[in-house]
Protein 1
Amino acid sequence: MTTQNDTLHNDSLLRFMTCGSVDDGKSTLIGRLLFDSKTILADTLTQMSRTSEKRGLSAVDLSLLTDGLQAEREQGITIDVAYRYFSTGTRKYIIADAPGHEQYTRNMVTAASTANLAIILIDARRGVLTQTRRHSYLAHLVGIQHIVVAVNKMDLVNYDQASYDKICADYLAFAKEIGLAQARDIRFIPMSALAGDMLVDRLGNMNWYQGETLLEILEKAPAAHTETKEAFRFPVQFVCRPHASADADLHDYRGFMGRIESGEIAIGDAVTVLPNGYQSKVKAIHLGETELKTAKTEQSITLLLEDEIDTSRGDMIVKSSEVQEPVKQIDAYVCWLSETPLSLARTYVIRHTTRESKAKVAAIHYKVDVNTLEQQASSDLKMNDIARISFKLAQPLMVDSYSVNRATGAFIVIDESTNNTVGAGMIT
Amino acid sequence: MTTQTSNNQALSHLDWLESEAIYILREVAGQCSNPVLLFSGGKDSLCILRLAEKAFRPGRFPFPLMHIDTGHNYQEVIDFRDQRAAELGERLIVRSVEDSMKRGTVVLKSADESRNKHQSVTLLEAIEEFGFDCCIGGARRDEEKARAKERIMSFRDEFGQWDPKNQRPELWNLYNARSHKGENIRAFPISNWTEMDVWQYIEREKLTLPSIYFAHQRDVVMRGGSIVPVNVPLVSGELANPVKAGEEIINMQVRFRTVGDISCTAPVPSDADSIEKIVLETATSTITERGATRLDDQTSDASMEQRKKEGYF
């Protein structure tokens, strides 16, 4: 067995999302970040300038970089979450670019599900709008820890500080009202994505702003799982039993493979396998050919236990000091993703970590209007609706509250007749 | 913002990408009943083989390897493909576009037409022959615009078609690889990798690659602004890309950034003869991987999207 020799610089990764509509300059912002970080290469730029010319534009339209599909180009809108990449040398970034329109609530929830930071764009001429409230609520609901409110198009208000200050104050008042300001880290930044001011460079138009540029904020933003201590959660994905192998040493090998969703584990730790509650101790931890003494969040490893325990995909290994009680009813915020509305009569499949259970709706408590944040009594759930729902489960699930653990607090709802993913749930 | 606590250090980006890819491979193994790993001998699929080792050893891979051979591949790559499969002791299935041509399911418009897009037909035939419910591939979202919205687990209907407006939402890491009989999932474990990540991973894991990835002397001509390798000997004894009248053969030092069908993969001028030098060259490159090397994507802004709808990988 070799030890891991990481010869490369130990840079981390940040996943973030952008919220805003086409009018807010979201695509321009992303295009600008990629352009200024030298991610856009010559041939792409040539193609963009050709397309810009074809549309009769005088300068290269950086937003062309991010509208991907032919269908979308024809309509001039973005209808699906797109993923973009850039790297600064110290950090790799994955951007989830979600369309901002109301009917795409599901896309925003999708993009937010893997993000640890959200950039919420506000047009400096328009200030805090209904969509700003919607984006902020959704970012909050889906558990994004860091919010950057980017007041864009400052060039169109003559880089006026008073306009900026008013928007910040309006936003903060609203953020307090919905509990966002108390629970999350919120930053404000004035910018002009079109001019490229305050993204990577300071162009000197807003010397009254002494805070960090957007890229500086991104470079310093904590990566997921680094800010709080979390319980060890290891859903078993696959069991490795190479007993038919020619190697006699492997006849009794039984490796539990999976990704550590949260927390840390060390050789010798006492563990419990749920839902059955079998107890054992960690005998070895493998990552490929490498033997580890400890392993941490987001590592895909193989766990070997001291005792022979009957464990399969869908079970969860936890530390014996941090056992959660398996449950057969869950209460959650659910975003409906499908064009076919939720049916109270039907049985769905819920996938939670690597485990599945049949499920039926026990009650729809209320629907949330994503624009006014009002709770409304409701007996149905349509695409892009968000509601608080209770499900009855056929099989027990090992859950945590989503606000404590995004991996073990999340689930998807699957319609078995189409196999489509029709709902996204966050356990309260 | 709060500062990071030292006992909770995040993984390096390469460790994170590796872990995510291993997780995706294990999800395929856990959710699908008869998956297959598409393996061409190219650099992306070599990374996936390494990831599969990390995901499943000391067990065997829970899927065979399969190559759809256009018959117009570089001999070095085919030899390398066979050697690598043998070293791993895993089963390799090869299905060829030429067999589809014999069956009449692939008809070329002209003898020198690129066979790249016809791989779709042979792939669908192989999926049906073996009853595969999932194909694991090495596509990356950074390769091309149409791929930026591709799912990690991408659903294809009975005709192998990708419908960009009818893809399953993909949230958290809760991948849905379910399919009914006849339908198919394409799984992309290195979706979130860039070309640079791939080269860094190859360097870190000390992976060996087919020789044509490194700088070498080769006869080429300049055709339509691209460097086109000419008179390439094929397994059949024929020569691919014969030189056309009036073209001047140049012996140039080149390397390939991607390898695929000879008729549509162009090399770039390079003196990078080691992985370290390639990483450096990639970091300073001014042209995208596909822009420099894929002759078939230059037709129109939407050509990749079109081919994907028709079942292309």
Note: The two ends of chain B are 43 Å apart (CA to CA).
Protein 2
Amino acid sequence: MKRTFLIVSALSLIGLMLLSSLACAEETPPFKGIEITIPVLAGPSGEAVKKLAPQFEAISGMKVNIEILSHDELWKKMELDAAAKSGNFDAFHINYFKLDEYRNSGAIIALDDFIKGDVSPYSDPKWDDFAFALLKAMSERDGKYYAFPHMGDTRLLWYNKELFAKAGLQNPPDTWVEFTDYARKMTTPDGKQYGAGFEWQKSIYVLDMFQGLLLENGSPFFDENWNSQMNSPAGQASLQFMYDTLNKEKIVPPDVINWGHTELTNGIVTGYVAMADQWHVFIPQAEDPSSSLVAGKLGYALVPGIKQADGTILRRDSLGTWGFAINSASKNPKATYAFLEWLKSPEIDVQYALMGGTSTRVSTNNDPRVIEKFSFAPVAAKSLSEVVMPLPIIPNFTEWVEAAGTEIHKGLVNQLSVKEALDGATDISNKLMEKIGFRKVK
Amino acid sequence: MPVNKKTFPYLLLLPSLLLILLVGIYPLMYLIQNSLFSFTLIRQAEKVFVGLANYRDLLISQQFWSSLLITVIYVVSSTFITFVLGLGIALLLNQGTPLTRVFRSIFLMPMVATPVIVALTWRHIWDFRFGIMNLFLSKVGIKPLLWLADTKLALLSIIITDVWQWTPFVILVIEAGLVAIPEYLYEAAVVDGCNFWKRFWYMTVPHLRPVIGLTLAIRVMDLFRNADLVYVITSGGPGTSTEVLAFSVFKKAFVIFQIGDAAATAIILVILTTFIVSSLIKRWDIEF
Amino acid sequence: MKYHGKQIWIQVIILFVLVIFSIWTLFPFYWMITASFKNRLQTFAPPTLFFTPTLKNYTEAFSLYGSLGKTFINSLIICAVSVALSLLLGIPAAYALGRLNFKGKNNISFFILSLRIMPPVVSALPLYLLAARLNMLDSFTTIIVLYTVFNFPFVIWMLKGFFLEIPLEIEEAAQIDGCSRFGVIRFVFPLISPGVVATAIFSCILTWNEFIAALILTGRHTRTVPVELTTNITSAGIEWGKLMAGGTVALLPILIISIIIQKHLVRGLTLGAVKG
């Protein structure tokens, strides 16, 4: 009797366990237990991703390692990972001009199969909601999507309203002529305050500004046959303007040629410069009284432009966008896709934006919660849709940007004359375009 | 293998040499091989054999020769200044002061501190607006200088930083060499009526010869191969005014990822350094 | 150079010059340490002598994702194992080079020293690819082996000098007493133990501070302190306070040990040359 009881109860226990495990299996999320590692650029957007990841871990049962890396470390690690196909990272966090280098080398995979296969139960990607220009630059190649646009950054003209009022000025400048004029008024002879600040460090920084001016002066970097237009009259006017601003007008601090994001933000938040052509992602930092002396005193406007023959003002500046692409050596591409899709889904993207990340979604940038928290959001959205232009999308972008950006820099710092620098940059650009077969040698 | 008198030394050296072959020689072989190819890191599957074209392109490029000139200026002046300053201070320290131990501890600090942090600290020290250098200049009534933003001053700033970091090392090594010179020699010389310079020239220098040679060799080697300071403080700028060869190698390998080109530059740098260091060693009779 | 009965004013001048040079050597540390007690705005205001200190950088540096504490442990493990290994392999090698005569001795010596001629950047790249092929990325083994070899030139060089210092008669006595060849090394070892300590500390300094190879070859699990510190350089700016707080904490332990053994440390660097 005792024995039968034992057997029965044991059997029923096993049955119960089986049943419950079956029930569990039905509800087990598809990627439970999988571990993925995603590298992210250190900064406000990266920290937002790090804070969001645990939410996804909770619903999916996955383990998501977000590795925050400094700019230099990020590129080295990703490039080495891609070269060795080691698959340590399941996704790459790259910017748009690197997309082709990664795509052509087979380091990343197209997302279309996942999109069509609807692999993720958690979200709807809503691809048509990403800002069109960003999607074009950051993801779409030959009709396929290769990356989730993640950060959408644009430069705005930050201006110190208090210093403007002191100089008897009201509105931000609309053209570079006005800009120079205003900056003169706000530059003090003792060197304690300058009218404006830029980030004119070597390579891409200086090239960003140069491209804006070049386009406003009516010329792209390359003509349709990939001949460099850098030493065209438009190019001359552009670099000459930068040179004069620094060396003749002296309305910017004399060391702006070494300035990057850090120095420029510090310049404006300490009241050292009255205007700054700076990325909008750093605005929350400037509005935080614990790290800024000018919190609440700044205004944000579209960058100045050049008056065209028809009287309109053409404004151009460089686009900044980063995205997530899936590593072709990843052992869990589907799970990675599921996480990225969730991360960039409309509702999570709003949370991300509220944490200070810069969004690539039209719906997020127009979301009332976002606008309420960040009053500059509409200007940024306008700039993203009307002002920004990507740098030339070419497969050997890194080499070109470094070479051309260094030549232009030489012209700014008097190592070469403006003309010599532009000729040098043109020459190098043409050679590099020949090397990749874009430019035909006659 | 029987352990006899002949094989014993090699047996002792074997484990070290094997590891060195793996970690030291493998990279060198990789560099030599890949300097003959043209490719970017991420597309290493599509290597193109170009023979000596990387070397040719390098030797005809203006940038290479300007980098070489900058490197030579950097290495020679840094070595010279650290050496002269270090020798002078070491001689003073060797006179024996009540605080010798304290001074030695202080001089250890730059050697011990993390180089990345040191370099970042110095970048801040040279800053045009916030830097201590310009604050100091303004206190003595001199207009602030564009230390890192002026093509003529940037290399000087790097050299001064290097002098700060490595003079203490030279002091400590030379001072240790001075301590090893037997004191009775000096006492005899004083009795014989030799003056300070004669003692220095005929007794101190010959005794220090191997130490001096060692110090010079280490300094020259480190200056040629390390680009940390340049990387952190100026990134080779403004323009290309501080782009030393080691930084070119770094830039080619890890900024634009042109591995073939980087390898060729590295090989030239290694040949150059080996040549200079081995002639230094010969000249100063250092036994290794 | 010493002679007795120096005049007071000469001593005062010497002391004065040394003090000036010490101030020059110390002032960046002054800036570094004060920056670690400043808030963001203070580090980017023109420098002042007095300010209200904050401990926030230290608390934040060590709580930020809790990773700096972990990297300290990583650094300790890597440092301890690689230094121990380089001594284990380096002592016999140094003994051979310092004490024994054999063919090719000078060439081998120069060969070992010439490891220091390769720019570290370029040796790290092929090693990464090799480690990737062996599936040994982000592993303690890889970085430890690498550092062991990085340490060889100095370990062998310093220990060789210490071996040379021991009178040959002691060793001969040991041999007469019937010690085997390996036995002799065991016999001599206690005599050079101060030298071994000095060498260990010196290798520790090099290992603890190494950056480029660590940046490339370590990963999430094996990251070392210098690499972790640079994550304070973000796209939004350099967190000077946190960077310097971490830098200060990283500096202290190794500085204190070096000061304690300063005499042996420095002597070790020159012995090889002096006695060579």
Note: Chain B has a mean pLDDT of 88.
